[in-house]
Write a sequence for this structure.
């Protein structure tokens, strides 16, 4: 199957492995620093960081909240921006789409692999955070943000679910990056433009004068995964996030398909 070949090619690249390794390194470094310093108190710092010393689960969630705003979106932008533009710059795109119906299949394969990378990136953070958190911090019962207590296994399950939510939250960005990648033969331009969209969305998200735009902004619900640390879980913000991402996927995946199927095969 084409997507399996594309997956082996993408995840076999040194830069993709380096991105995943860096994402895994961030929560390890964070856990070590918090262990040495005791971490912030009184809710200061990124979400969950002040609770990391209490339980390994919060160390993983803290790592996710730290990487969510910059490192994961940057990694997704790099891989998405390179998806088609990278092939064009190397001169391999003309061979990949020369076959009848090859364009749609190629775009679908790249979209599937991008979706997998988004989830893999978030899982790399959470798994590394759980391992390092278990080494440095207690790992018994977890006191949720609601004040209730759940088992450590339940906490692990919630952390993995948070990784899945974050991964899916990146699908809208991946669709945007894939579309931009079909517009140019210069991968670095596609990557930079995709990152620029994230920055612009984050800036607008913090401007109260345009609060009517906030529910439609790509980044608005990215921290919805934090509700998984409550008991019971507040699902409404999470479903809002996922529904918004589906909207971005529908628009930009369609735009990418339209561009890909009409693109000059020699480009």
């Amino acid at each position: 199957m084409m997507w399996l070949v594309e997956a082996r090619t993408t995840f076999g690249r040194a830069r993709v492995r380096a991105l995943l390794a860096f994402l895994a390194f961030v929560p390890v470094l964070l856990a070590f620093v918090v262990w040495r310093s005791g971490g912030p108190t009184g809710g200061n710092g990124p979400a969950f960081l002040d609770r990391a010393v209490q339980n390994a689960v919060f160390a993983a969630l803290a790592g996710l909240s730290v990487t969510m705003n910059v490192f994961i979106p940057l990694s997704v932008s790099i891989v998405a921006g390179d998806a088609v533009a990278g092939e064009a710059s190397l001169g391999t795109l003309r061979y990949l789409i020369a076959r009848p119906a090859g364009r749609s299949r190629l775009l679908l394969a790249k979209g599937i692999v991008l979706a997998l990378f988004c989830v893999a990136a978030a899982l790399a953070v959470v798994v590394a955070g759980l391992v390092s958190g278990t080494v440095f911090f207690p790992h018994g019962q977890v006191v949720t943000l609601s004040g209730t207590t759940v088992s450590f296994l339940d906490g692990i399950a919630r952390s993995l679910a948070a990784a899945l939510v974050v991964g899916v939250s990146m699908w809208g960005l991946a669709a945007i990056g894939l579309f931009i990648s079909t517009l140019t033969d210069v991968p670095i331009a596609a990557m930079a433009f995709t990152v620029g969209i994230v920055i612009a969305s984050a800036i607008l998200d913090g401007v109260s004068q345009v609060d009517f735009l906030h529910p439609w902004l790509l980044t608005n619900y990215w921290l919805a995964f934090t509700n998984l640390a409550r008991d019971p879980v507040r699902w409404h913000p999470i479903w809002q996030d996922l529904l918004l991402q589906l909207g971005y996927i529908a628009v930009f995946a369609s735009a990418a398909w339209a561009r890909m199927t009409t693109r000059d095969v020699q480009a």
